[in-house]
Amino acid sequence: MTAKIKLYTDGACSQNPGPGGWAFVMILKDMQGDQPEQELLRGSGSEKLTTNNRMEIQAVIEALKEVHSRKLLDLELTIYTDSSYVKNGITEWIKKWKKNGWKSSSNSPVKNQDLWLLLDSLVSSFSSLSWKWVKGHAGNKFNEVCDSLASKQAQWQKGEQASLSF
């Protein structure tokens, strides 16, 4: 492979449930030569009534949709998230949920099943995908960018004045 894609994602919610936002940053790393990483794209959006967990999942979904639309499916892809819920949900828990008819360990319906199904479908189309958990609010440049964008989207949806500049 000549290039790698890094996707940083984050979700935010102003109250839970309440107005929420999601964001991602797509980074390209050329593996030939000493080229620095290149930021390809930032994306963000919001919903009027949602939860922080839904926004965390939505951020990854929107980022993967962009990778699809750019036809970058054959590149090595790493998703960076500060959400253990998303990372563990898609890499571990989803297998049990499917086996148990989308019931949780407490035998209740799995929350956000609609988003998990969509995320699972998107993830299955990649030849090389890995997940990395990053500590939130710990100075990771791109995690901080995503956090800021997602929070601004949630504030905007709440009706607060916020700059959505990129």
- Taking all Cα atoms into account, the compactness measure Rg is 16 Å
Strand content: 25-35%
Task: Compute the number of helices.
Answer: 4
Q: Give the topology string: H per helix, E per strand.
A: EEEHEHHEH
The N- and C-terminal alpha carbons lie at a distance of: 30 Å
Helix amount: 25-40%
Question: What is the overall shape?
Answer: globular
Strand order of the largest sheet: 3-2-1-4-5
Number of strands: 5
Mean pLDDT value: 92
Unreliable spans are 161-166
Query: Structural class, from helix and strand content?
Result: alpha/beta
Largest sheet: 5 strands, mixed
Question: Can you walk me through this structure?
Answer:
This protein is of the alpha/beta class and 166 residues long. It has four helices and five strands. It has a five-stranded mixed sheet. A hairpin with a 4-residue loop joins strand 1 and strand 2. The longest helix has 18 residues. The C terminus is likely disordered.
Q: What features would you highlight for this structure?
A:
166 residues; 5 strands; five-stranded mixed β-sheet; 38% helix; alpha/beta; disordered C terminus; single chain
Topology readout:
Layout: E1 3-13, E2 18-30, E3 38-50, H1 52-69, E4 76-81, H2 84-99, H3 113-123, E5 129-133, H4 141-158
Helix pairs in contact: 1-3
Short synopsis of the structure:
38% of the residues lie in helices and 29% in strands. The chain has 166 residues and is of the alpha/beta class. α1 packs parallel to α3.
